[in-house]
Amino acid sequence: MxxxxxxxNKENGMAVYVIIKRKLTINAPEKLMPLMEELSRxxxxxxxxxxxxxxxxxxxxxxxxxxxxxxTAGDWEKWxxxxxxxxxxxxxxxxxxxxxxxxxxxxVG
Length: 109
Fold this sequence. Notes:
Elements: E1 2-9, E2 14-21, H1 29-44, E3 49-56, E4 64-70, H2 73-81, H3 83-96, E5 101-105
Parallel strand pairs: 1-4
Antiparallel strand pairs: 1-2, 2-5, 3-4
Helix pairs in contact: 1-3
């Protein structure tokens, strides 16, 4: 699964993309889906949050990508570092049996 957060950096006007990579092999969807919904709901409550779109791979239906738009990279970073998000994310990772990886990108040119 990929999770992409679209961020806007007000300092230089450049968009910043945070890619969160995760493969979802759902052994216990009744436990996992409420956690994913909770992450999404809590993100929507954060300062600077703008929007989210969830996509599913047409080649492998276990892979998802979430595109989340934030006003600034700082807004995303504050949410990313929050104990609230880390706790929920830890529960997600333990259910899927894999660590989630994060990488930040910005447009070229």
